[in-house]
Amino acid sequence: CAEIQGTSPERLAECLGLDPSKYRSRSNDATGSDPSAALLFATSDEERYKSCEPLALACPSCSAAFNCPSITSSVCASIGKKSETEEFDSTFWLKLHCPKCESEGSTRRISPAMICNQVKRQIVEFVSMYYEGIMMCDDESCKYTSRSPNFRLLGDRERGTVCPNYPNCNGSLLRKYTEADLYKQLSYFCHILDTQRSLDKMDVGVRIQVEKAMTKIRPAVESAASLARSIRDRCAYGWVQLTDIAI
């Protein structure tokens, strides 16, 4: 039933008066078998990147850290009506001021080099997390975690996936931080720093106003955006190997 468009095992279980929570894991496993589905079929950017870590910048003056909104959402908010709580999100990329320092009267801007260096540092942290190669058992009652692969063979299971606690545990070892997680995180940073691709999706009337603001912001973020794109594009996860599909 998980393969039928528009339904899911937990929904059918609910209609039949069964406990849907017992069938939810099967649905998640079906989605997890194709990690790219989250990127391909998400209805919005918020849904597509909801599991990603935010881009955090630290002020060089006061060392305060703050999460950055995407440039597109920031510019669109500055054009439309906004509440006081949205003031920072809508003006940060236009002013490049630390919210704490700005409230204290400081006008020092965060430089393009600072933005680029901090983006690079965070990307390196995520890449390092991937290369740590931490494996975790998918059995909720086990959660065995290790960096050392277990090469035991059991039935038709892939080598290295058998939980060392077998036979007390029938779970499988899976990467805690996968290629899909890394690629999605890098794509999210590209999305936050994007000043061009989002314009292609806008109506002409709105696009003219947004493009004027983007022109002012682009020089400050182009180095960081170019860095994020270059590292993401080097990730093999985003490329199709023709040898795998050629007949």
From TrEMBL:
<protein>
    <submittedName>
        <fullName>DNA polymerase alpha catalytic subunit</fullName>
    </submittedName>
</protein>
<dbReference type="InterPro" id="IPR015088">
    <property type="entry name" value="Znf_DNA-dir_DNA_pol_B_alpha"/>
</dbReference>
<dbReference type="GO" id="GO:1902975">
    <property type="term" value="P:mitotic DNA replication initiation"/>
</dbReference>
<dbReference type="Pfam" id="PF08996">
    <property type="entry name" value="zf-DNA_Pol"/>
</dbReference>
<dbReference type="GO" id="GO:0003887">
    <property type="term" value="F:DNA-directed DNA polymerase activity"/>
</dbReference>
<feature type="domain" description="Zinc finger DNA-directed DNA polymerase family B alpha">
    <location>
        <begin position="43"/>
        <end position="245"/>
    </location>
</feature>
<dbReference type="GO" id="GO:0003697">
    <property type="term" value="F:single-stranded DNA binding"/>
</dbReference>
<dbReference type="GO" id="GO:0003688">
    <property type="term" value="F:DNA replication origin binding"/>
</dbReference>
<dbReference type="InterPro" id="IPR038256">
    <property type="entry name" value="Pol_alpha_znc_sf"/>
</dbReference>
<dbReference type="GO" id="GO:0006273">
    <property type="term" value="P:lagging strand elongation"/>
</dbReference>
<dbReference type="GO" id="GO:0006272">
    <property type="term" value="P:leading strand elongation"/>
</dbReference>
<dbReference type="GO" id="GO:0003682">
    <property type="term" value="F:chromatin binding"/>
</dbReference>
<dbReference type="GO" id="GO:0005658">
    <property type="term" value="C:alpha DNA polymerase:primase complex"/>
</dbReference>
